[in-house]
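Need a sequence for this fold. Nothing fancy.
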């Protein structure tokens, strides 16, 4: 997870206090109608106790971060992240809405203003709070199966209706060893009876110790033909401070060796060939390749070196920017599978239309994309990182069915 400077954290705390002061100011227009001075005082004390406690916790965590056990940092950071979002977002919306209503209250009579303005303002605050709480406690683990058909003229006839499960971005450290939560996803995947399973990176947040005990869960994943994986940007340990280069190297080795425990073949700039009744398709996997500041260890030419003559190729590449920058420019890969974006873990899906702020950073951020008969599918991910929830962007299990087209 990205580390922010103490000055940046201080500015965040200033913003929190500023928004809380505005919230408190407008809240007085509501609480002043309460007849009990004792209740008014209690509300005020509770309000500022929470604010001071949250700001203090954020600053203390930043200052003491390096002295805390690494096994506790992720849990503490994500907990404060969730608490901050669930507090800050509703309050800022409350301030904006009630300010607009107040300064345009000439639309209402004085009596109506006394009722409408505070009521709408409170709803503007409480509704986002409810949505965020749902996203944290339910939305983050409400798995959804997306079913997609991908046609292509070069698909061998014997691979028509070949079923692929595509998952990505588990970030196992975020689950905090709550194995049963992910076991539900494993059961859903196995019930789909896929021919093959692909995992497109970000197994962990940073550390190999996050994997403790997860082999018993993930080795239960079953597929008829095989299970394949690649690395994501978080699997290299780049977002942590290490005592030595050797410690980082050892961490990386342990993460890679974990795939042997769960019967996945880890593809490191290489390809395998699948044969079915004397017909072939190629499965290629590259290491992480992304635009700066993300590392570019992926070697596409090396990965495709021994499968150039196979017409139908599937590429596993963690970051979807790789598709536009290299894949469709220099190769004839039929289908590329990526993750990385998480769909920002927040978005809107209405009547088949989807939107997320992540679209302003990533051109290809969720779903199926096609350019000149080459396809890219970007999954929204199965885990979470940072904000401990998902709003309108449910954790995804993708079932892709390959189709022979004319």
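Here you go.
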């Amino acid at each position: 997870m990205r580390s922010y400077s103490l000055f940046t954290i201080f500015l965040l705390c200033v913003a929190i206090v500023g928004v809380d002061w505005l919230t408190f100011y407008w809240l007085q227009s509501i609480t002043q109608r309460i007849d009990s001075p004792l209740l008014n005082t209690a509300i005020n004390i509770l309000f500022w106790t929470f604010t001071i406690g949250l700001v203090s916790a954020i600053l203390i965590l930043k200052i003491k971060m390096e002295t805390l056990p690494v096994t506790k940092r992720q849990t503490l950071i994500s907990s404060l992240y969730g608490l901050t979002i669930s507090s800050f977002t509703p309050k800022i919306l409350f301030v904006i809405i009630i300010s607009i209503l107040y300064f345009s209250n000439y639309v209402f009579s004085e009596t109506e203003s006394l009722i409408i303005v505070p009521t709408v303002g409170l709803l503007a605050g409480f509704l986002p709070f409810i949505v965020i709480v749902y996203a944290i406690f339910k939305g983050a683990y409400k798995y959804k199966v997306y079913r997609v058909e991908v046609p292509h003229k070069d698909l061998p006839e014997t691979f028509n209706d070949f079923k692929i499960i595509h998952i990505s971005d588990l970030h196992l450290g975020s689950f905090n060893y709550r194995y049963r939560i992910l076991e539900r996803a494993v059961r859903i995947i196995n019930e789909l009876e896929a021919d093959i399973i692909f995992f497109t990176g970000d197994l962990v947040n940073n550390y190999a110790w996050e994997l403790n005990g997860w082999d018993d869960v993930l080795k239960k994943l079953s597929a008829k033909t095989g299970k394949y994986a690649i690395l994501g940007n978080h699997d290299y340990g780049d977002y942590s401070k290490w005592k030595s280069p050797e410690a980082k190297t050892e961490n990386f080795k342990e993460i890679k060796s974990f795939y042997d425990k769960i019967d996945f073949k880890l593809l490191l700039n290489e390809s395998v060939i699948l044969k079915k009744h004397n017909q072939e398709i190629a499965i290629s996997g590259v290491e992480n390749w992304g635009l700066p500041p993300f590392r570019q260890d992926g070697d596409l030419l090396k990965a495709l070196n021994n499968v150039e003559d196979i017409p139908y190729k599937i590429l596993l590449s963690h970051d979807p920017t790789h598709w536009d920058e290299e894949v469709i420019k220099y190769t004839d890969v039929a289908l590329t599978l990526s993750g990385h974006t998480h769909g920002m873990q927040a978005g809107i899906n209405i009547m088949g239309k989807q939107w997320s702020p992540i679209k302003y950073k990533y051109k290809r951020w969720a779903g199926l994309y096609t350019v000149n008969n080459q396809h890219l599918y970007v999954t929204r991910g199965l885990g979470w990182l940072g904000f401990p929830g998902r709003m309108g962007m449910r954790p995804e299990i993708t079932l892709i069915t390959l189709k022979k087209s004319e």
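For context: The CA atoms of residues 94 and 125 lie 5 Å apart.
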